[in-house]
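User: quick one, fold this
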Amino acid sequence: MAHGGRALPTSPPTLGALLKGLRAREGWTLKEMSAKSGIPVSTLSKIEHDRLTLTYDKLQALARRLGMRMTDLFAEESEEAAQPVTARRSLGDVAHSVRVETPNYDYYYLCTELRRKRMIPVVTKIRARSAEQFGELVRHSGEEFLYVLSGRVEVQTEFYDPVTLEPGQAIYIDSSMGHAYLAATGCEEAEVLAVMSSAEEELMESLLTLHHGQRGAGAENENDPPASPRRRGGAR
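Assistant:
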């Protein structure tokens, strides 16, 4: 339905829709895409129909074998993509996010269909409870804001003493300073909203790369709970 002579925005595409669109643009059959990506035809078909997702490792391998950046898998091709945009808008929720699972964290990247964002919003579930579990402090370009939605979060930084945040509290830091977010003592899992910002146009690519050392098995089997964006319900 049009409003004021313009079509209303549609829901963000699922990973399956993005892969199907990529295949259509390249003129590949499922068999050809399978040969290029190393992913079985049956698996690709299930992904395109949103019945299956891919782990971080599989997404990374798919992008590499197709000669693409990972962020290209999460964005629609558009003839207007390279043009200056002054009125962009994206509606997002966890059910339509791009989910990346690691042993200590679940990351839900919001509004991923927009290219060249200078802010990356992420809902994160934190399970790491010690520096040993977390590993080396993380550093990347830019700045970030973190707001605690539930649970308690211990923030460790390179130049400051650790601080514990309660629900409703927030912190803003320079991301180039080593930092780690942990579930505080007595908290099994915390949930936070984080917004990363940088002049680096490929910030999301950099953030996804950071997950490489944290990655877990994820859900890639047919009987495992799906982690791909869905139009129905919330991410499980």
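User: anything notable?
Assistant: The radius of gyration is 19 Å.
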